[in-house]
């Protein structure tokens, strides 16, 4: 049992998430496109490659590194049977994200966030609730272009976060930010596909390892 | 679970009220059902009946016999019912042994409402895709009949009962707007079945109105009777066909019985509404009430009698005009401390 849990931690890329995406895939899905220069957030400047005709372009090399780290982290969490919660407040992609979460076997929250969901969970849900072990933000702003309340709440409750940060977002409190576009449908479909594949791979590996252990 | 770092002694006291109403576990309900079945058999043996065929009505009678109570409220008396009727249907605990919730939208708070919205939105997308396919293939648009006034949407309370969850007014409104949008699209049969789950039939008022057939007297003339009341007046009217417009009340002609024009107008109003002023004869008997009340009573009676002579559409027109409804206004009683029903005594400052 201990070996099951400690074995993946010895490899840097146990689940081989690098092969799930390539630079060309990210470029074709228009992940590099940011918002205009006026919307730029100060803390996103290190992640921006440059500015063309007033529109920011995100550095895809850095995006690749961050994406690889984030997918690796989600795969480890899924391998250890953690609860993953997908969050986004974009109305266009709410249906897509809920479908992705359902197919993975994980959870989604793309609706209005009630204040005490994480911090007041024992009163809102019941006494033996288990809180999510990872929050994945597919768009880190809410409908009023402010940082989503869940980022702050997760930091309060010591829950790690993975988030796609666009050029107008604040990447501060997110543990594994992924600088990238969160407005194009192609980009969102790509992210959903990547997260789904990573989680399913990790769960399959876990099941295989358990079966091998039982056979011994 | 949370790790307690530091709190004051005030917080450590258990807040009994904040945990909400008592939640019943499945094991508890199962035990209650077993005890209920055992108790039913004991009761049957006590009453000398067969334990196998002991119905709920027999249980109620037996309990009323063994524990007579003079309490007025039926719900306060001793009762023995199946636990599913006593313990209200509640959400059982939503997560399994390892802590993972069952429903994928559990962390939103209102899982059944949001899953309903999700499904309805999916049906909407399917309908739009189907419409696109139909237009791409250049098929003629399907014309489907929609029942305009025969159905209504579920009320907020009914939806709450269906979902076992509290809804807010905004949520309910959003759901109804989504359903209406889905209905306006040229959707196929699949979506109609889904929509029918959330709509109810409204029986039209006409079905309650019973139209009696015409009766024929010795001369072969068609006639029909009607009864009417107004305040304390009771009237019966017999309307004959092929007449000249003669109206007799208690054996006296209306010109002599109702000298006031207003009362005669009230009598003739049903005939004027149906444009049959000179075509019918009427013989009425009336008792009780005053001048105006008797006129109103005869008007109702004659309108009811005319129902048999006239088509269903015109009966609906009469009902909407208010000719067939009984006027419920009666004299209001005088209250103590007041001079009349509403008039108070003169208020004197000193």
TrEMBL record, chain A:
This is Small ribosomal subunit protein uS2m. It comes from the Eukaryota. The keyword Lyase does not apply. Pfam families: Ribosomal_S2 (PF00318). Keywords: Mitochondrion, Ribonucleoprotein, Ribosomal protein. One of its GO terms (cellular component) is mitochondrial small ribosomal subunit. It comes from Himantopus himantopus (Black-winged stilt). Belongs to the universal ribosomal protein uS2 family. It is found in: Mitochondrion. HAMAP family: Ribosomal_uS2_B (MF_00291_B). PROSITE patterns: RIBOSOMAL_S2_1. Required for mitoribosome formation and stability, and mitochondrial translation. One of its GO terms (molecular function) is structural constituent of ribosome. GO terms for biological process: translation.
TrEMBL record, chain B:
Residues 329-350 are annotated as: Disordered. Coiled coil: none annotated. One of its GO terms (biological process) is translation. Keywords: Mitochondrion, Ribonucleoprotein, Ribosomal protein, Transit peptide. The keyword Mitochondrion applies. The keyword Ribosomal protein applies. Pfam families: Ribosomal_S9. GO terms for molecular function: RNA binding; structural constituent of ribosome. It is found in: Mitochondrion. One of its GO terms (cellular component) is mitochondrial inner membrane. Belongs to the universal ribosomal protein uS9 family. This is Small ribosomal subunit protein uS9m. It comes from Himantopus himantopus. The lineage of its organism: Eukaryota, Metazoa, Chordata, Craniata, Vertebrata. The gene is Mrps9.
């Amino acid at each position: 049992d201990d070996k099951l849990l400690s074995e993946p931690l010895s490899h840097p890329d146990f689940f081989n998430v690098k092969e799930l995406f390539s630079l060309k895939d990210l470029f074709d899905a228009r992940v590099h496109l940011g918002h205009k220069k006026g919307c730029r957030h100060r803390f996103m400047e290190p992640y921006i490659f440059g500015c063309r005709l007033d529109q920011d372009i995100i550095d895809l090399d850095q995006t690749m590194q961050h994406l690889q780290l984030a997918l690796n982290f989600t795969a480890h969490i899924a391998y250890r049977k953690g609860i993953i919660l997908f969050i986004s407040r974009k109305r266009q992609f709410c249906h897509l994200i809920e479908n992705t979460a359902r197919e993975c076997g994980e959870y989604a929250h793309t609706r209005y966030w009630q204040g005490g969901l994480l911090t007041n969970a024992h009163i809102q849900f019941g006494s033996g609730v288990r809180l999510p072990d990872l929050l994945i933000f597919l768009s880190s702003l809410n409908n009023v272009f402010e940082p989503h309340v869940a980022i702050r709440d997760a930091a309060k409750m010591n829950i790690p976060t993975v988030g796609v940060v666009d050029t107008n977002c604040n990447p501060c409190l997110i543990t594994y930010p992924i600088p990238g576009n969160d407005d194009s449908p192609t980009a969102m479909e790509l992210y959903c596909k990547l997260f789904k594949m990573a989680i399913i791979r990790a769960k399959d590996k876990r099941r295989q390892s358990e079966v091998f252990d039982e056979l011994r | 679970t949370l790790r307690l770092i530091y709190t004051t002694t005030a917080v450590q006291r258990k807040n009994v009220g904040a945990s909400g109403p008592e939640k019943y576990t499945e094991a508890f309900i199962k035990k209650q059902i077993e005890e209920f079945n055992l108790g039913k058999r004991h009761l049957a043996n006590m009453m000398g009946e067969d334990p196998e065929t002991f119905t709920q009505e027999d249980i109620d009678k037996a309990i009323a016999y063994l524990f007579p109570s003079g309490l007025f409220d039926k719900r306060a008396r001793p009762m023995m019912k199946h636990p599913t009727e006593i313990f209200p249907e509640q959400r059982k605990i939503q997560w399994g042994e390892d802590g993972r919730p069952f429903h994928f939208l559990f962390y939103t708070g209102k899982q059944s409402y949001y899953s309903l919205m999700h499904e309805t939105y999916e049906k909407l997308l399917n309908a739009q895709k189907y419409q696109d396919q139909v237009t791409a293939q250049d098929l003629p648009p399907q014309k489907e009949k929609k029942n305009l006034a025969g159905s209504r949407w579920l009320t907020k309370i009914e939806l709450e009962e269906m979902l076992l969850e509290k809804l807010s007014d905004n949520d309910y409104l959003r759901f109804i707007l989504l359903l209406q949008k889905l209905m306006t699209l040229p959707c196929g049969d699949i979506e109609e079945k889904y929509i029918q789950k959330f709509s109810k039939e409204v029986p039209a008022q006409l079905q309650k109105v019973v139209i009696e057939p015409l009766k024929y007297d010795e001369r072969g003339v068609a006639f029909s009777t009607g009864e009417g009341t107004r305040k304390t007046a009771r009237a019966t009217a017999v309307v004959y066909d092929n007449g000249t417009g003669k109206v007799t009340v208690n054996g006296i002609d209306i010109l002599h019985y109702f000298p006031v024009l207003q009362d005669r107008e009230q009598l003739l109003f049903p005939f004027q509404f149906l444009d049959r002023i000179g075509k019918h004869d009427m013989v009425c008997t009336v008792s009780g009430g005053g001048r105006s009340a008797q006129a109103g009573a005869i008007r109702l009676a004659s309108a009811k009698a005319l129902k048999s002579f006239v088509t269903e559409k015109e009966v609906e027109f009469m009902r909407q005009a208010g000719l067939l409804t009984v006027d419920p206004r009666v004299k209001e009683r005088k209250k103590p401390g007041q001079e009349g029903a509403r008039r108070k005594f003169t208020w004197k400052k000193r």
